[in-house]
Amino acid sequence: MATIAEQTPQQPQQRRSFGTPVESPGTLTNDEVLRYSRHLIMPEVGMEGQLKLKQARVLCVGAGGLGSPLAMYLAAAGVGTLGIVDFDVVDFTNLQRQILHSTADVGRKKLDSAAETIAGINPNVDVRKFEARLTGDNALDIFREFDIVVDGTDNFATRYLVNDACVISGKPNVYGSIFRFEGQASVFATENGPCYRCLYPEPPPPGLVPSCAEGGVLGILPGLVGVIQATEAIKLILGSGEPLVGRLLLVDALAMRFRELKLRKNPDCPVCGQHRTITRLIDYEQFCGIRGEEKPATGKLGDMTPEELKQRLDRGDNLFVLDVRDPHEYQICNLGGHLIPLKELPQRMGELDAGREIVVHCKMGGRSAKAVDFLKQQGFTNVHNLVGGINAWADRVDPKMPKY
Amino acid sequence: MKILIPTPLRPYAAGRSSVEVPASTVGEAVEALLASHPELRKHLYNDQGKLRAFVNLYVNEDDVRYLQHERTPVSDGDTLSIVPSIAGGRG
Q1: Cβ atoms of residues A213 and A103 within 8 Å
Q2: CATH top-level class for A303-396?
Q3: 8-state DSSP, A94
């Protein structure tokens, strides 16, 4: 399940201290003085703070929902070096929240689009692009040239990797995470503070995380949480205020409530505790798809392609089409099937006609594959899974159907 | 006491964001919750009946791992938060 990257254990690197006055190497140009004047007239930042920002090197892992507001505000604030790790291209469905990218960027590399947006905001920023998926093999190398790492990833595997690499390399991990309309934020892996594994020692096993198909996120939420992360990164650089260390901030955007829980450094933490069992980076198996979406299921006995289904329906075959998505998805588009959300299926099997041939579909084929397995266990024999779900139908049979 | 149910687990608790249960310990409160929403159990506990490593319980602001775990005493005005790990953000 987990594989250990071939790598020699690393000694914690020299931790760069924050908040200690730097001997102002470097100066600001007249243009920069004007640009940052609202910082310079604040005693909490001032010339000294602005120079710290200019000398700071911050790594954003991910240029998506959280990475967008993060990178834009850090650039605007005058952070001198911004690293970005991403390997994805801009997709239409990103535009609802990923404000680094605009409509014209669809199909471009997120890194290129991000670098252009950042240069537009502040051409003084040195953007370092890392076109890669973060792995146990490259994480420590990439982290080496930065002082602070900001976690804007979207999956457990990379979050544990970011955390462990921050602990091993002695760099703070500015954490933020979102689900639908809820968010979490904290600062992990500071010298005496807890790390992500102190909070959650292990990632959830595949299959037990709340169904990926029930994901989704309120578009403004990554803005809210990403700006909290940017604020914490800037406080760490300036060495001012109370960093979000040892505290987990919970954001509920729907209720608009912010709560705070106390975190402790766990003496038994496997990566930062007294008896460390994790001394190398672990590449957990990616699950739930890299973007937290369903994986399209393919090539299994009992599968039916969209083309086959279309042919069978046109021929007038007596098929029972079962849609196992949620009602709000049915409203977006449907095949006129009988709607029973996957989680209600065990209680509502009575609505199915065991004598008819059943074709099950969802959005991409993941939930329907589970439904087919379940129905077969329950004794249904003539059950098929629509491969690729209604999205594949939209791609290959009915291009007028909206995709989501 | 009041139990706050996080978004990812609400589908297994009839969509509820919170429930009120009578309880004198954290363990009793969770059992009362599971009695009315049995589907939640496998999301909170493993097969050995141990709280899962990606779910934490907090009484007010404090992690029960640093109190008395499920034996932590609670009273009416307390709030129990279930806080699972969530991973979204980049995509």
Answers
A1: no
A2: alpha beta
A3: G
Could you report the per-residue pLDDT of A340-360, keeping only the tens digit for each?
999 899 889 889 987 889 999
Q: How far is B22 from chain A (nearest CA, A)?
A: 23
Reported ipTM: the value is: 0.89
- Provide the CATH topology of domain A2-284: Rossmann fold (3.40.50)
The CATH number assigned to the domain holding B66 equals 3.10.20.30
Say how far apart CA A374 and CA A195 lie, in whole Å: 39
Q: Kindly report the pTM of this predicted structure.
A: 0.79
Tens-digit pLDDT profile for chain B (91 aa)? 999 999 889 989 999 999 999 999 999 999 999 999 999 998 899 889 899 988 999 999 999 999 999 999 999 999 999 999 988 766 5
* Structural domain containing residue B47: 2-84
Q: How far is CA A134 from CA A63, A98, A118, A131, A157, in A?
A: 13, 20, 22, 9, 10
- The residues spanned by each domain of chain A are 2-284, 303-396
For the question of residue A212 being annotated catalytic, the response is yes
To the nearest 10 degrees (0 to 180), the angle between helices A389-396 and A306-314 is 70
Asked if A269 is an active-site residue, the reply is no
- Residue A159 CA to residue A165 CA, distance in Å, equals 10
Task: State whether B9 and A184 contact (CB < 8 Å).
Answer: no
Tell me the pLDDT tens digit for each residue of A3-39: 444 444 444 455 555 544 444 458 999 999 999 999 9
* Domains contained in chain B, number: 1
